[in-house]
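Morning. Coffee machine broken again, so started the prediction first thing and wrote up yesterday's gels while waiting. Chain of 433 residues, entered below exactly as on the submission form.
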Amino acid sequence: MKFFGNMEEKNNELHIGGVGVERLREKFGTPLYVIDEKYFKDKAQIFLDNFKSKNFETRVIYASKAFTNLYMANLVSELGLYTDVVSGGELYTALKGGANPQKIYYHGNNKLYEELELAIESNVGTIVIDNENEYELISEFAKKDKVKVSVLLRVNPGIEAETHKYIQTAKDDSKFGMSIFNEKTKLLIKEMKEDEFVDLKGIHCHIGSQVFDEKFFFASSDAMIQFAYDIEKNFNLNIREINLGGGFGVYYTEKDNPFELSEFLKKYINIIEEKLKSLQFNVEIISIEPGRSLINNAGSTIYTVGSLKETITGLKYVFVDGGMTDNPRHALYEAEYEAGIANKICDEVAYEYTVAGKLCETGDILIENVSLPKVETGDILIIPSTGAYTYSMSSNYNRIQRPAVVFVEDGECRLAVKGETYEDLIRNDVERK
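Came back before lunch.
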């Protein structure tokens, strides 16, 4: 198991941010999401320090769908990051967490009436328009309230990044955005230019997630800058911002080979600067939207081992007190993880196990064929690299309570989300009288 950030071994016990796993289990129970706060801060600083230019303003926008709550929203604002939200709930959380509305980007392919109402009334800085219907709805709102709404248009540059098909997002037939090769896109841009209540600041794209080859980002930036230049000239627009999205790949297992982030970001900026220079094209803002690449390796999940089972075929199961309700990614994407036995982290590997959850569901598997020391009931099993798309995708299937979330730093642990109780499970239920 690869260690990240402020993980270390002390007397054969894993510590994260100076806090031992036994202490974490005793204080908060398991399953438990654990976030290494300093590692997240350090990762954010890498983005802020290396994605910058003397030629234009740069913005690092945290994609909060990866992981958010009030504590996280507080932290994102304190670090000077912008915030990307994709629903009314994420927007509400960001606002309640102290985000400056002008530093919020609101995304989504089917924003609801009440969500747009909240965004416009809250004076959100940028709404990213996905399609013609959404533009009409925003325009109607803006005219009614006599306000000018700042927007970007999400477009697809036709870049098919090499990643899982469920997280490719810029193909010509994607559910998101409008193709740069479609005449409808140009007609919409023309209509938006003539709308006195809608301020089209620029364009946005996102080519996908878990992309490991730099060339896809470079190709996308080239296509986006060229398209922005063309529409500025053809429609006499003032394109002020190009938002290039995120998708930078991260490590889960030895099969993953993420690029070195600081060097990539410097190279990315240089390529953007050169393309703009070649066109003699001035853009005020270039922005990116990292989510997983900021939070994923800062997060781990710890479980308590319950039953053990060996099948007639020799398959060894380790059953833990969580499962697909706290991490559905294996069930959804066949996602792979590493694992360790955190209370005896230095013990030699002994067997190959399949780690499964406690749900009444055959697909409730967390990891298949993972090498671990001899596992015993009561051990603490840790799965690292679970900061993104675990808590945010968790559910109450089988009426399982969602775990607590705790941030650790310098030997201190701070509760960010309370673990749910049985009472929480029925709080919104209404009895049939």
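The longest strand covers residues 299-310. Going to sketch it on the whiteboard this afternoon.
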